[in-house]
Amino acid sequence: MSSLSRDEVAHVAMLARIQLSDEELDKLAGQLDQIVGYVGQVNEIAADDVPPMSHPLPLVNVTRPDEVRPSLTQEQALANAPASDLGRFEVPRILDED
């Protein structure tokens, strides 16, 4: 296991454009070194007969198939709208465009 130096942590922080104080660099160097060590332990334990997986349980797609069904017309959908314009719902502006 290689230990991460303070300079390496500072370099990664610079690449990520994160400003860290000297105390934060010292603290993170130790924490990141521990994390790398834990990952190394997991790699040592991982057996060759266990396939890599992204999730511990099998995932099944639970969406229903698309079915064409009748729906509202544009006029019906806009019938009870407080305001509409050019066939669309009109809502108050919440963001200014600069």
From TrEMBL:
Q: What does this protein do?
A: Allows the formation of correctly charged Asn-tRNA(Asn) or Gln-tRNA(Gln) through the transamidation of misacylated Asp-tRNA(Asn) or Glu-tRNA(Gln) in organisms which lack either or both of asparaginyl-tRNA or glutaminyl-tRNA synthetases. The reaction takes place in the presence of glutamine and ATP through an activated phospho-Asp-tRNA(Asn) or phospho-Glu-tRNA(Gln).
Q: State if Lyase is listed as a keyword.
A: no
A single Gene Ontology MF term assigned here is: glutaminyl-tRNA synthase (glutamine-hydrolyzing) activity
| Gene name in the database record | gatC
Q: Does the keyword Nucleotide-binding apply?
A: yes
EC number(s) of the enzyme? 6.3.5.-
The UniProt entry's GO biological process terms, in alphabetical order, are:
glutaminyl-tRNAGln biosynthesis via transamidation; regulation of translational fidelity; translation
What InterPro entries does the database record attribute to this sequence?
Asp/Glu-ADT_sf_sub_c, GatC
Assembly with partners or alone? Heterotrimer of A, B and C subunits.
Family, according to the entry, reads as follows: Belongs to the GatC family.
The name under which this protein is listed is Aspartyl/glutamyl-tRNA(Asn/Gln) amidotransferase subunit C
Gene3D superfamilies in the cross-refs? Glu-tRNAGln amidotransferase C subunit, N-terminal domain
- Biological source species: Metallococcus carri
User: Which reactions appear under catalytic activity for this entry?
Assistant: L-aspartyl-tRNA(Asn) + L-glutamine + ATP + H2O = L-asparaginyl-tRNA(Asn) + L-glutamate + ADP + phosphate + 2 H(+); L-glutamyl-tRNA(Gln) + L-glutamine + ATP + H2O = L-glutaminyl-tRNA(Gln) + L-glutamate + ADP + phosphate + H(+)
> Per its UniProt entry, what is the enzyme's top EC class, as one word?
ligase
* Alphabetical list of PANTHER family matching this protein: GLUTAMYL-TRNA(GLN) AMIDOTRANSFERASE SUBUNIT C, MITOCHONDRIAL
Which keywords belong to this entry? ATP-binding, Ligase, Nucleotide-binding, Protein biosynthesis
